[in-house]
Design a protein that fits this description.
Pfam families: Glyco_transf_4, Glycos_transf_1. The chain has 14 helices and 16 strands. It is an alpha/beta fold. The radius of gyration is 22 Å and the shape is elongated.
């Protein structure tokens, strides 16, 4: 990160920042019309992951702020189509590289012509591969800013493409530097990622803006109906009313480090606990075998695929949220758990420093002994756990709202447009 680069903070990293300064008028395009924003992403529904959640939240908030927003993404098949402002480019499967990944096909000229006629004022890319090529081409053709959100710490995924972690990191470093050099601004969810990119030699304005959360959707069980639903979920998994649920919501992939969670559960040896792994993925068979080998298979439940709309229900049936992943850029599931009133127990990671307030919203641990001690403290002190759950909920409400996320990203757009002001003024003199 260069000296002097703007790094506005908001959401979970806000500390005394006046967010009101970052509220540009979305109609301030010089022509009186709403700001047109094109979001590009390789990942979109029906896929469920952090990138999809982030982009969907951003789209909703930008629309609420009065922007005109469209999305360019990949179809689940070879046909290109446009539905409700979402352009889906034909693509083919790349699951041999990464589960459910897809590669865009060199088609979609009609979609490109339509987007160019619409003429976005800002292009905001959310992925570094297929749709980034389109994002760069559109931004360059229209001479508008290209903003990019760097969602993934790829060096934690080297096992997918390189037998050597050192070599894999060098590939990631070079690739990231090359891709980001073509952007006007880069958004990252945490200071950890900003420092990582600075270490890669990325010299673009870096803005730390954590993804906001829809706090109306993620909340503790309140009504009797919601409590009954939580009890029904437990019963369906064969979990008794006196057992405590340790919850993890995650794609079942190697980089999520769920092997370590299983080992920690085994070492803690709490017969009154059940670990519920919410999600599906290519590593499930290995995890099931590992649970069996550790002798804890009777205390581990795999839910399989869960519809995105049902995820809040699963948070509400938990007692403690656990995780050991070190591949998170922000840890959205930890924030969702916190907003659902769950104390956190997670492996120490700088990306979670603003989420886990030690002894208040939860604990970060290092090693099995510390995990066991923290878990025992949580489970053997129901009153303390209730207080921590309440504190987690309040912390999420105070720091991780979606509205601040949308306003702050809009502020980045405004800064990027101002840096390109001469080009933009010349472009807006031409009738749309």
């Amino acid at each position: 990160m260069r000296s002097g680069d703007a790094v506005p903070r908001t959401g979970c990293e806000a500390r005394g920042v006046n967010v009101n300064r970052m509220r540009p008028d979305p109609s301030a395009t010089g022509s009186g019309r709403p700001l047109r924003v094109l979001l590009t992403t390789d990942w979109w529904e029906p896929v469920v992951n952090g990138v999809v959640a982030s982009v969907q939240t951003l789209r909703r908030e930008l629309l609420a702020l009065g922007c005109d927003v469209r999305v360019l993404t990949l179809s689940q098949g070879i046909r290109t189509r446009n539905e409700d402002g979402v352009y889906r480019l034909g693509s083919v499967s790349a699951s041999m590289v990464y589960d459910r990944a897809r590669i865009g096909m060199p088609s979609g000229r009609r979609a490109l012509r339509d987007i160019l006629r619409w003429s976005p004022d800002v292009v905001h890319s959310q992925a570094e591969f297929s749709t980034f090529v389109w994002a760069r081409r559109i931004a360059r053709t229209l001479a508008v800013p290209l903003v990019h959100t760097y969602h993934t710490i790829y060096e934690d995924y080297t096992h997918y493409y390189s037998p050597s972690r050192t070599m894999g990191r060098k590939v990631v470093e070079s690739f990231s530097r090359r891709v980001l050099s073509r952007t006007d601004a880069v958004i990252v969810p945490t200071t950890k990622v900003a420092r990582l990119l600075a270490g890669y030699g990325v010299h673009r304005p870096l803005h730390v803006i954590p993804t906001g959360l829809d706090l109306d959707r993620f909340r503790p069980a309140g009504s009797e109906e919601e409590h009954a639903d939580a009890r029904a979920l437990r019963a369906a998994l064969g979990i008794g009313p006196r057992q405590r649920v340790l919850l993890s919501v995650s794609r079942l992939a190697k980089e999520k480090n769920l092997d370590e969670v299983l080992e920690l559960i085994s070492v803690a040896d709490r017969a009154d606990t059940v670990l519920v792994l919410v999600g599906e993925g290519p590593y499930r068979a290995e995890l099931e075998a590992r649970a069996q080998a550790l002798g804890i298979a009777d205390r581990v439940r795999f839910t399989g695929v869960v519809a995105p709309a049902d995820i809040p229900r699963w948070y509400r049936m938990g007692d403690v949220f656990v995780g050991a992943s070190l591949s998170e850029t922000q840890g959205l599931t930890f924030i969702e758990a916190m907003a659902s009133g769950l104390p956190l127990l997670c492996r120490r990671d700088p990306s979670l420093a603003s989420v886990v307030v030690e002894g208040v919203t939860g604990w970060q641990f290092e090693g099995p002994a510390q995990f066991t001690a923290r878990l025992n403290a949580l489970l053997d002190d129901p009153r303390g756990r209730t207080q921590m759950a309440h504190a987690a909920l309040e912390h999420a409400r105070a720091t991780c709202g979606a509205q601040e996320f949308g306003r702050s990203v809009l502020g980045v757009y405004q800064q990027a447009r101002e840096r390109r002001a001469p080009l933009l003024l010349g472009r807006e003199a031409v009738p749309a």
